[in-house]
Specification:
Helix 1 crosses helix 2. This protein has about 325 residues and is an alpha/beta fold. The strands form three sheets. Strands 3, 4, 5, 6, 7, 14 and 15 form a seven-stranded mixed β-sheet that branches. A six-stranded parallel β-sheet has the order 10-9-8-11-12-13, sandwiched between helices. Helices cover about 20% and strands about 25% of the residues. The chain contains nine helices and 15 strands. The chain is globular and about 65 Å long. The protein has two domains: about 5-125 and about 305-335, Medium-chain alcohol dehydrogenases, catalytic domain (Quinone Oxidoreductase, Chain A, domain 1), CATH 3.90.180.10; about 130-280, NAD(P)-binding Rossmann-like Domain (Rossmann fold, 3-Layer(aba) Sandwich).
């Protein structure tokens, strides 16, 4: 096959505060035929995720920062067009972390083959992918979820939070979940079976609201938001409760680092465990996660939503939508 045309999204500037569309550029490029040990892939789905905001800063972290003038990296799912490696054939569905581009050539070792008959292909970027795995690890390994416990999940209608809520319900837990719209609250209540979903924008004062739904306290707080959510949740934890520090989207665009939670000292008297985690440290558990999740998906105990933007030119719009609450469930770009 001859070389083909492709488009990809580059980061032009390191944003201060909320990124602007002008911080990115859609670039036209060509993709060659693969050489020995290489594979050419035509992407079908791209993932946009909140953690990507952190990679726009030039600072040490658990992953390197995005390079200026280079393609935005991140999860992508595509189909093999041509292959110079015997492990891949045209038509195979493959995952990569090679980002926001329509097509690319990569070493075969950079790709992971997935089974489209096991689940809808795009779910490998969502409920059956990194977000679902994050929820599974956070609840079961970090939170040490037990049967019949009381759980609070912030950002409960997002890609991670929505799965975390349902894992807790599978374990017969009472679940409280915050979301940013009445539509999301309705989905959490009617589909995800969350016991006490609420719109934090309507509630406004979490310190006053949480005592009305916390009963005698939370065993687990699964934090995707940080800020006021974390401060209020700490006050409502049971003794020896676990706080799973998964994300803090409220702070990701802060030009100045925010102060720590003012209620942190209660963790001493309550003997709380506050633990952050990076899901890729637990990759040895992935086969267990896939087995659990496929079973739960097939028997209807885990349901999922996707918010889809069409075309690579809308990748930035989709990404920025994460910070305005435009997504219910997993935010995806369809190529």
């Amino acid at each position: 096959m001859p070389e083909i045309e492709s488009r990809e999204v580059h980061l032009l500037h390191r944003p201060s505060g909320l990124p602007d569309p002008g911080d990115f550029e859609v670039v036209q490029t060509t993709v060659a035929e693969p050489g020995d040990g290489e594979v050419r892939v035509r992407n079908r789905w791209l993932s946009v995720d909140p953690y990507m905001r952190g990679r726009m800063y030039d600072r040490p972290s658990y992953v390197p920062p995005f390079a200026l003038g280079k393609v935005m990296q991140g999860g992508a799912l595509g189909v093999v067009e041509s292959s110079g490696d015997e492990g891949f054939t045209p038509g195979d569905w493959v995952l990569s972390d090679l980002g926001w581009r329509e097509a690319f050539v990569a070493p075969a070792r950079a790709l992971t083959k997935v089974d489209p008959d096991l689940a809808p292909p795009q779910t490998y970027l969502g409920v059956l992918g990194m977000p679902g795995f994050t929820a599974w690890v956070g609840m079961l390994e970090i939170g040490k979820l037990g049967e019949g416990q009381h759980v609070f999940v912030s950002g409960a209608a997002g890609a991670v939070g929505s799965v975390a809520c349902q894992i807790a319900k599978i374990h017969d837990c009472t679940v409280v979940g915050s979301a940013g719209s009445d539509e999301k609250v309705a989905w959490l209540r009617d589909v995800a079976r969350v016991d006490e979903p609420f719109n934090y924008k309507t509630v406004r004062n979490l310190h006053r609201y949480l005592p009305t739904v916390a009963g005698d306290g939370f065993d687990i707080y699964f934090d995707n938001v940080g800020g006021d959510h974390l401060e209020a949740a700490l006050l409502r934890m049971k003794n020896f409760g676990r706080v799973v520090l998964c994300g803090a989207i409220e702070h990701y665009n802060a030009a100045v680092p925010p102060p720590g939670p003012r209620t942190l000292t209660v963790a001493i008297g309550k003997r709380l465990t506050l633990k952050g985690f990076i899901v890729f440290d637990h990759i040895a558990l992935r086969s267990r996660f896939v087995s659990d999740m496929v079973t739960w998906m097939r028997d209807g105990r885990v349901k999922w939503e996707e918010t889809v933007f069409d075309g690579i030119e809308r990748s930035v719009e989709a990404f920025l939508g994460l910070f305005s609450g435009a997504n219910l469930g997993k935010m995806l770009v369809k190529i």
